[in-house]
Design a protein that fits this description.
Layout lengths: L26 E7 L5 E2 L57 H7 L5 E3 L2 E5 L2 E6 L7 E5 L10 E8 L5 E8 L6 E7 L12 E7 L26 E7 L14 E11 L6 E12 L8 E12 L2 E11 L17 E4 L6 E4 L3 H4 L7 E3 L3 E5 L3 E2 L7 E14 L5 E8 L6 E6 L4 E11 L4 E9 L4 E5 L2 E5 L8 E2 L2 E2 L1 E8 L3 E4 L15 E10 L2 H5 L8 E12 L4 H5 L6 E16 L3 E16 L7 E7 L2 E6 L2 E5 L2 E12 L4 E12 L2 E15 L6 E11 L8
Parallel strand pairs: 2-7, 12-31
Antiparallel strand pairs: 1-3, 1-9, 4-5, 5-6, 7-8, 8-9, 10-11, 10-19, 10-20, 11-12, 12-13, 13-14, 14-15, 15-16, 15-17, 16-19, 17-18, 21-22, 21-23, 21-33, 22-24, 23-24, 24-25, 25-28, 26-27, 27-30, 28-29, 30-32, 32-33, 34-35, 34-42, 35-36, 36-37, 37-39, 38-39, 39-40, 40-41, 41-42
Length: about 700
């Protein structure tokens, strides 16, 4: 899956035995933030690294919140554990460098490492703080004194001993930390020129305290597990000639979606990174340029992020590490162009209000050896439906309203994959539906340099570049956006008991998000206030090869067919007089279709947010020659009083024109249980165990 670029302990990472530090020439850098103390606890007992139920010890003494690999001999790379009884001291040279120590740790950018020395169990990392006053960290049993307090951290040394990654976090102040990396630079003849791919794993960002790329811990990014974000680099593709053509032949991308919990207390985050390797003919100029887009929900509000990323270089201007191939690298931001967190739209609109927050994400990336590209790589266009909850956020980042946003026709969602350029493009035409009005939203995703297509089940994209304009209510609008498939999802307690996702083979579904700044023209017409933004966090889409209406009409002689899958949607539920709790919910979906008389068909969503929906009767029609079905939904159990409908199509596969079904759906009303306003919008994905065939 997209979220597991490699499997710790099974792939090319970690060290099985012996000293994890190797006496090899390293080049590298450090990235630091805050001022931290300097006593490092290190376990040298492998038995301490295999504690059952490790995540349960989160926050306890001797445990780490992010787990990858320890600095211990013979470590298990699945776990990191530091024992207070087995402590090595980290010594900061207090001679003339002491006066510069605080300054050194008070920035968020790369610094070149002078050298790394190893001898027996001692390990020293030298950093320049002045011409005659280097700052160094020393690890080992002989280092017993420290002018500061204790820190905790983690480390990874690849099995090939060509890349090292260390992190340091102040135990008493977790917001203060640093990371250091070093590796053997990749030579020119080791850069792939054929069609291969490397799986990339991005470690959790120790500086941001984040498990999701470019999402800050303050907004819930520490949710989920400390497993790495999965990514890929695909080499040997075909690109346009408007950029460097000297083996500028690779694309890189990574994505992770985490949803933890159910209902109003749910936390969630999604991050998508997409870029391209340029200048690979010369290691001195080879680099990755990438864009990152993300959103998160923590509490009642949501935030959106944007970042322009590039590989961090060492003192010899090299960015890739690995003797056999360019497997390892670090992505960061320039000091003059930090990543931005947008709470409201004030900063982007140039009006007073809550300003965007600048920060510097750190994406330390490990790779596995090159392998052939997957076989399931189709150049094709697929159609479908999308849904979600659009929230209106004011200039101060406060949620003002929520509305359904979805498509209703099969030609309104188009996703095109291109195996030659390893890219994907998508166009969404959506309806923004409020209580008494509706309007259009048009989004454009992807293209070369703004997407990654691994295979038919793993791809992602951010908004298209200059010259391709998204719009809100028919007027061009500044928009940030992302799109990703469901394989990037890790859920923790999202699914109610007895609910599972569709085991669909022929359709694909996933997530999308946007942050759209309405045009000043719309503010003049009093449709929006200056600084407002329209935001979607974790909307959903589903797409596949939809059958012609004529093929579905031929099924009238077949009789009935049953479908089973899931309904996922974004919920907005009123809390009190003026607050709206927003979250993602999932339920089971079942449908029995009577192709001879669609009005006899039945369908239901069950175990959804404490209630469900049901409907009787479908209407079949043709939209541009493509099949479509429509139905009405009525709330059940705790959702009585919430009514809506669905619009969907049948997907071809396994010789059947209706092997699977997908749809958008939505409902709105006041729940009879407590009278609270309730909005939901999302998508449906379902498959038939016995697909009907054309007679």
């Amino acid at each position: 899956p997209f979220d597991r670029g490699f499997v710790p302990g099974e792939d090319d990472i970690g060290t099985a035995n012996g000293d994890p530090f190797s006496d090899i020439p390293f080049s590298g850098g450090t990235i630091a933030a805050g001022v931290f103390s300097v006593t490092l606890g290190v376990s040298d007992s492998p038995n301490l690294l295999t504690v059952p139920g490790f995540p349960a010890c989160r926050g306890a003494t001797g445990c780490l919140t992010v787990a990858r690999a320890s600095l211990a001999d013979a470590f298990d790379p699945d776990f990191t554990l530091f024992d207070e009884d087995l402590i090595s001291r980290l010594l900061l040279d207090a001679a003339p460098a002491a006066q510069n120590a605080e300054v050194f740790f008070d920035f968020e950018r790369s610094v070149v490492v002078d050298r790394i020395d190893t001898e027996d169990e001692d390990f020293s990392l030298f950093l320049p703080s002045g011409p005659d006053a280097p700052v160094f960290f020393a690890f080992g049993p002989d280092q017993t004194d420290s002018p500061f307090g204790r820190i905790i951290g983690e480390g990874i040394l690849t099995q090939t001993e060509d890349f090292l990654y260390l992190t340091f976090i102040e135990e008493s102040s977790p917001d203060h930390g640093a990371l250091a990396w070093a590796g053997v630079p990749t030579k020119a003849d080791a850069f792939p020129t054929t069609r291969v791919m490397t799986r990339q794993a991005i470690a959790g960002d120790v500086i941001l305290g984040s498990n999701v790329p470019i999402v800050r811990d303050d907004d819930g990014a520490r949710i989920g597990a400390g497993d790495p974000t999965g990514g890929f680099t695909l080499w040997g593709g075909r690109f346009s000639a408007d950029r460097e053509t000297d083996r500028a032949n690779a694309v890189f991308g990574a994505a992770r979606v985490i949803i933890e919990g159910r209902g109003g207390g749910q936390q969630s985050a999604a991050g998508v990174v997409s870029g391209r390797v340029l200048g690979a003919a010369d290691p001195a100029v080879a680099r990755i340029e990438a864009l990152g887009r993300a959103s998160s929900r923590f509490g009642l509000g949501s935030v959106f992020y944007e970042a322009t990323l590039a590989t961090v270089r060492d003192d010899k201007n090299r960015a890739f590490y690995g003797e056999a191939a360019p497997l390892h690298f670090v992505l960061g931001t320039a000091a003059a162009a930090p990543a931005l967190q947008h709470d409201g739209g004030a900063g982007r609109a140039g009006v007073s209000g809550l300003a965007s927050i600048a920060f510097h994400p750190n994406l330390v990336t490990f790779g596995t050896k090159p392998e052939p590209l997957p076989n399931n790589r189709s150049t094709r266009a697929i159609n479908g439906y999308a849904g979600g909850l659009a929230t209106l956020i004011d200039r101060n980042g406060l949620l003002q309203d929520g509305s359904e946003i979805h498509s209703i026709n099969p030609d309104e969602i188009v996703i095109t994959t291109d195996a030659a350029s390893d890219s994907v493009t998508a166009n969404f035409s959506l309806l923004l539906i409020d209580v008494d009005s509706s309007g259009s939203v048009n989004l454009a995703f992807g293209g070369p340099e703004r997407s990654l297509f691994v295979d038919d089940r793993r791809f992602g994209a951010v908004e298209q570049g200059p010259g391709v304009v998204s719009s809100l209510l028919g007027v061009p609008a500044e928009t940030l956006a992302y799109l990703v498939v469901d394989s990037a999802l890790e859920d923790f307690g999202l699914l109610p008991p007895g609910v599972s996702f569709c085991s669909c083979q022929f359709l694909t579904w996933g997530f999308w998000g946007m942050d759209t700044l309405p045009s000043p023209e719309l503010s003049v017409h009093q449709q929006f206030d200056p600084g407002d933004t329209v935001r979607v966090h974790l909307g959903n889409w589903a797409a596949g090869t939809l059958s012609d209406f004529s093929k579905i009409a031929q099924l009238s002689l077949v009789g009935t067919a049953s479908y089973h899958g899931h309904a996922i949607g974004s919920v907005g539920r009123q809390i009190g007089a003026d607050k709206l709790a927003t979250y993602v919910a999932v339920g089971n979906f079942t449908m029995v279709v009577d192709f001879s008389n669609p009005r006899n068909s039945t369908f239901a969503i069950t175990d959804f947010d404490g209630g469900g929906f049901a409907g009787v009767g479908l209407a079949f029609d043709s939209v541009g020659g493509t099949n479509r079905f429509l139905g009405e939904l009525s709330g059940r159990a705790a959702l009585v009083g919430i009514n809506g409908g669905l619009a969907g199509s049948f997907v071809a596969g396994a010789g059947s024109p209706a092997a699977e079904a997908l749809a958008s759906w939505g409902a709105r009303g006041n729940a009879s249980s407590d009278g609270a306003e309730y909005i939901v919008s999302g998508v449906i994905a379902a498959s038939s165990p016995t697909p009907p065939g054309v007679p």
